[in-house]
Amino acid sequence: MKKPRFTLTQLLVVTGIVATIACLALPIGTQIRENGRIMQEASNLRQLGVGTAAYLADHDGKIFSTDSQGGWPALLHQKYITNWKTFKSPFDMRPDGDAASPTGAGVPVSYGINVHILTHSTAGENAFDGAATRYTSPSQLIYMAPNVDLTQSLLVFIPGTGDSNIALHVPTKAPATSSENRGTHAKRSLITVLFADDHAANIKYRDFATASGADGSARWQPIHHP
């Protein structure tokens, strides 16, 4: 008796089915990976928020400044957040560096603190002396976010390490087109932000980048005048 064999037509049909399934599965797998990174990003930021709250409790409610010795990541790492991986975004593809470093020298840090919170001053209308209790709108105020290089069309993080006071600078303008989005996910249209009341949320990059008007002032200025 002859053994049954696949005909060429049957082989082509099976190959076509496998190729179709692979094409359908690829975007699903990509989305699953992105969703995992989004969840990890929010978790990192929440942990940094908890660590900051503990730091504030130990320092009379005063937040870090650009003059903080050793850099704010190293200050948090000393006592409040001992795993350097918490300071690195899952979207940041730089090498991990020396995870055992006590000072954070050479350890990549992906997040920056709102420059208006890090820069303390007693002069001017929006002067901020570092007292976190003085935040005008903590639920709207951006405290920390991924420090993306806004000059690059590709997703690139601004170089920063654990022994640095890494500032998150206010984006200069909202994107005119979708190709100008500089977020971290959803085709660069969204970015995960930690607010001053310690809640993390995904917001549109367009909203993140709009610093003008009352809403923009509430997002970027610790003390503002509506």
Description:
- The radius of gyration is 23 Å and the shape is elongated.
- With 226 residues, the chain is of the alpha+beta class.
- The termini are far apart.
- It has five helices and five strands; from the N terminus they run ααβαββββαα.
List the SSEs and their pairings:
Elements: H1 8-58, H2 72-79, E1 111-114, H3 115-118, E2 142-146, E3 167-168, E4 190-195, E5 200-204, H4 205-209, H5 213-220
Parallel strand pairs: 1-3
Antiparallel strand pairs: 1-2, 2-4, 4-5
In brief:
The chain is built from five helices and five strands, in the order H-H-E-H-E-E-E-E-H-H. The chain is α+β, with helices and mostly antiparallel strands and 226 residues long.
Number of strands: 5
Question: Strand-residue fraction?
Answer: 5-15%
Per DSSP, the total helix count is 5
Count of the domains: 1
The proportion of residues forming helix, as a percent range, comes to: 25-40%
Rg calc: 23 Å
What spatial order of strands do you see in the largest sheet?
3-1-2-4-5
Which segments are poorly predicted (pLDDT under 50) over 5 or more consecutive residues?
A: none
**Average pLDDT, all residues:** 90
Q: Give the helices and strands as they follow along the chain.
A: HHEHEEEEHH
Span from first to last CA? Answer: 90 Å
How does the helix and strand content classify structurally?
alpha+beta
